[in-house]
Write a structure and sequence with these properties.
- The protein has 272 residues and is of the alpha/beta class.
- 32% of the residues lie in helices and 24% in strands.
- It contains 10 helices and 12 strands.
- It has a 6-stranded mixed β-sheet, with helices on both faces.
- Helix 3 packs parallel to helix 6 and helix 5 packs antiparallel against helix 6.
- It is globular, with a radius of gyration of 19 Å.
- 38% of the residues are buried.
Length: 272
């Protein structure tokens, strides 16, 4: 991240999303979405199932094309900066039976620096080792990922993302199915990334976590419902617009029953 300070001075808005629309399976999943995220901000994305959150992440990671609009990072089109964005998908999207070790997975984060042919340099190995140490998985380095618990697997993929040395880290439902210990490790790491001015964008179904532990919240339901501080976003009007009758208010907490579609138009065409 040697050029990060220079880029920050030139482009204070690290990420700019300019009127993008994204389709999946012939259905418009994200519609005319615009927002700006500054350097080092921690943003939570919330919304009902099928609202376009995973599709939006894939577009930010360069894995899914946008039909309209553009995504800029440091003022330049997505893909201009090598290894600038690291993406951790939902655990359900990963084939955990693939025969690789923890160390193999973490070293994949260095491929953009090493290339597919050259052997790993000493610095690449050291960075991967440091990332495993930080996440408490160094002793698991030689274990197959299929032998790990859900929380351990999540740490492995986070270590891989950190080894990439990204400017922007995207995490799709990283807190789903993990224990409290792993959750606190993740937040401790997010605090460290904030100090390094790394922008972090996370999707979550936990509205109270989003309100308490993130700088900004994006409320998404195929389009931007609201974006800003939790106080400005989590208004009764905005929450009901996104979740409909699924919302309950209990002792200053917001509870969402997200097991079923919010309405008959809630698309299940989004990525599984």
């Amino acid at each position: 991240m040697g050029d990060l300070a220079k880029l920050e001075s030139l482009y204070p808005a690290r990420l700019e999303v300019q009127s993008i629309s994204i389709s999946y399976g012939g259905v418009r999943v994200v519609e005319n979405l615009s927002l700006q995220v500054g350097q080092g901000e921690r943003v939570a994305i919330v919304g009902p199932n099928g609202a376009g959150k995973s599709t939006f992440f894939k577009a930010l990671a360069g894995l899914k094309p946008v039909q309209e609009g553009q995504i800029l990072i440091h003022g330049k089109p997505l893909g201009t900066h090598k290894d600038c964005v690291a993406y951790i998908p939902q655990r359900e999207e990963v084939d955990w039976r693939f025969p690789v070790t923890v160390q193999d997975v973490v070293m994949m984060g260095r491929l953009g620096h090493i290339g597919w042919i050259k052997p790993a340099a000493k610095r690449d190995i050291e960075i991967a080792s440091t990332c495993m140490e930080e996440l408490g998985i160094a002793k698991l380095a030689k274990k197959p990922i299929s032998d790990l618990s859900g929380g351990q697997q999540q740490r492995v993929f986070l270590a891989r993302a950190l080894a990439q040395e990204p400017h922007i880290l995207l995490m799709d439902e990283p807190f789903s199915g993990i224990d409290i210990t792993t959750q606190e490790i993740l937040f401790h790491l997010l605090d460290q990334l904030r100090e390094q001015h790394v922008t972090v964008i996370v999707s979550t179904h936990d509205l109270n976590m989003a309100a308490q532990r993130f700088d900004k919240v994006l409320l998404l339901k195929h389009r931007l419902v609201a974006f800003g501080s939790a106080r400005d976003v989590f208004t009764p009007t905005a929450i009901r617009e996104a979740f409909g009758s699924q919302v309950l208010y209990l002792d200053n907490a917001v509870v969402v029953d997200d097991c079923c579609p919010a309405d008959e138009h809630n698309h299940n065409h989004e990525d599984p």
